[in-house]
Amino acid sequence: MSRELPNALNLRTDKAHSARMYDFYLGGKDNYEADREAAFKVAAAYPGIFVCARENREFMHRATRVLARDYGIRQWLDIGTGIPTKPNLHEVAQSVAPEARIVYVDNDPIVLVHAQTLLSSSAEGRTAYIRADVNEPDAILRSPELIETLDLTKPVALSLNALMHFVTDAQDAHGIVRRLMEALPSGSALALSHCTPDFDPQTWQKVTDIYDRAGTPVQFRGKAAVADFFTDLDLIEPGIVVGHRWRPSAGSGGDASGDGPAPSDADVSLWVGVGLKS
Fold it and tell me: pLDDT (tens digit, 9 = 90+) per residue, 161-209?
């Protein structure tokens, strides 16, 4: 898809954006000088960021596959989608269940530029894209695109991958997740990944400072605070674990790092989990 921008969009390419920095960590090309400058600073402080980004992506693939295959989930609300990177969530879900429906949500206008990639649904399923902010959950839940695509009387998987550390306690991160899950029926799921300072606090303080100086407030949380996102949900095995330890046998979705040695917990520094709403 062409990168020619609609006139109404302002990408603010002079300011680093977390979605474009993540694209850089994954080896993508949809990032700008400000994004790369901030990303290089993060990488200098924490070389494992590339491993963390890769393992986050692979967790999303495995969690999506497990929810579709083993728990019969056929609908996803993916917030903080980021710049498309194949295979995207709908491609993984529809490889198991062609009728799966996915609503993508992101607040970065460059993701909108690439939205056509996210709308390439199977004939049996459906996808939609909403430009919105996780800090306004009610606006997401009321959006016509969501209402037309998802049936909120049937289970929905809420996918929040590497997103909630960009929502601070002052912004009521846990309350936002509760509000979203409250809108979903019994049988729904929460799949969440979250960067953590637990394995190397000093390094992650440096990363925090870099994001803050770039104009992107972050709050990397410990395991107990990540577990709080799953309050009143039933965690599926193996519970909350470091990203690469969550059901590795479920497959990576096509971009595995190969048969080399497993990364260290400190390199990954990512708590992940999947919980079901009873």
Answer: 999 999 999 999 999 999 999 999 999 999 999 999 999 999 999 999 9
- Closest residue by Cα to residue 183 from 270, 58, 253, 277: 277
- Mode of pairing for the β-strands spanning 189-195 and 234-235: unpaired
SS3 readout for 87-100: CCHHHHHHHHCCCC
**Around Cβ 224, how many Cβ atoms within 10 Å?**
10
Please give the Cα distance from 26 to 50 (Å, whole number).
Answer: 7
pLDDT at 5: 39
Continuous segment of H or E residues that includes residue 78? strand 75-79
Q: How many CA atoms lie within 13 A of 152 on its CB side?
A: 17
Topology (CATH level 3) of domain 51-199+220-248+262-276 = Rossmann fold (3.40.50)
Residue 29's pLDDT band (cuts 50, 70, 90): confident
pLDDT at 111: 80
Question: CB neighbours of 129 closer than 8 A, spacing ≥ 6?
Answer: 81, 103, 104, 105, 106, 111, 112, 115, 118, 119, 145
Domain ranges of the chain: 51-199+220-248+262-276
Per the CB < 8 A criterion, the answer to whether 75 and 155 are in contact is yes
Among 27, 29, 37, 32, CA closest to 10: 32
Closest CA to 251 of 108, 95, 130: 95
Name residue 9's amino acid.
L
**Residue 233 and residue 190 in contact, taking contact as beta carbons nearer than 8 Å:** yes
User: What's the CA gap between 191 and 161, in Å, rounded?
Assistant: 7
